[in-house]
Amino acid sequence: MTEPLLAVEELAVTYRKSWRSSSVRAVDGVSLGLNSGEIVGVVGESGSGKSTLGRALLGLTKSTAGSIRFGGRDVTHERAGSRSSGRVLQVVFQDPFSSLNPARTVGSILSEPLEMHGGMSADAANSKIRELLLRVGLPADAMHRYPSAFSGGQRQRIAIARAISVDPDLVICDEATSALDVVTQARMLELLGSLSAERRMAVLFIAHDLAVVAAIAHRVVVLYQGRVMEQGPCRAILASPLHPYTRALELSSPVPDPAAQRERRRRRVEALAASTVEVSQEVPEVGCPFAPRCPEAFSACWTSRPKDNAVGDRTVACHLYDADLAPNPENRRNETA
Ligand SMILES: Nc1ncnc2c1ncn2[C@@H]1O[C@H](COP(=O)(O)OP(=O)(O)OP(=O)(O)O)[C@@H](O)[C@H]1O
User: Fold this and answer.
1) Which of 149, 168, 214, 311 is least buried, going by the fewest C-beta atoms within 10 A?
2) Whether residue 26 has its Cβ less than 6 Å from ligand 1
3) pTM for the full model?
4) Residue ranges of domains in the chain, CATH in brackets
């Protein structure tokens, strides 16, 4: 079997604010793989570790354990900009207002990576910039204007043009569409999807809304407190989320119909009802981090860390799917059949 383009094994990132404060395990044993041309979504609530994971993959944040292999090479301890892998990694951040230098024209912003990576002549760079602008849906004369002349959606198109200018193998999009209105967001997802398909470019798409991720990703990784709760094909997870946390997350995506939205809110409250198990500690050190909010938690959830249980073509880190621990494994098997 060939190695995936990106192979992440048991990655951990721990932050320590000062020597006196306790540490935060922002990423806690995350494993995932990404093939060329594949779009993988990373989804989770605020604080679940999505951005830290993205930053660690980019070499902007130091990992404390585990490994990152990119293009067949171990890049775990290499910083951004000094990666020895011959493969190209680019990023699109959430805020197109701060990620584009306001003092430079769009042409100058786009020519920088071309000069750094490609060593192009000015003429060749100019025609490549025109081509890139047209590809992302902007007029060629946009190159003479400054970022302030564009709307949020147009600026994000410029950021995407900058990312794809060097023909990356992988683009990490960190909440790249979250600041945009629904219609602009949908257009941006469509653009990213078609760019990925035509260039065999892999995309790691980080977002907090499962429905947004589902609109673009082939597979999805659900994070909670730095751990992978569920991972598998996007369509299957959206149609029948198995982990109690994924179910609650699915109910957080807004729907247009107010009555349906009210009903989803009610079901979400139920899905996040506190555990009925009597416990002394708040967040279990050794058990499942979701146990305190999980209405289905049982004693094992507080005492042992769930393993990645294979359920069809996905994995679910929940004792309810562990044949040796679940109170009613037969019921679960019927539920997932
Ligand atoms: N530089 C830092 N120093 C200390 N703790 C940090 C730092 N950056 C993030 N954290 C903590 O790490 C955890 C994960 O944060 P992270 O920003 O990766 O989550 P996220 O899922 O991207 O959240 P959001 O969607 O709000 O951006 C949080 O508890 C956060 O408070």
Assistant:
1) 149
2) yes
3) 0.90
4) 1-88+170-177+197-240 (3.40.50.300), 96-166 (no CATH), 241-336 (no CATH)
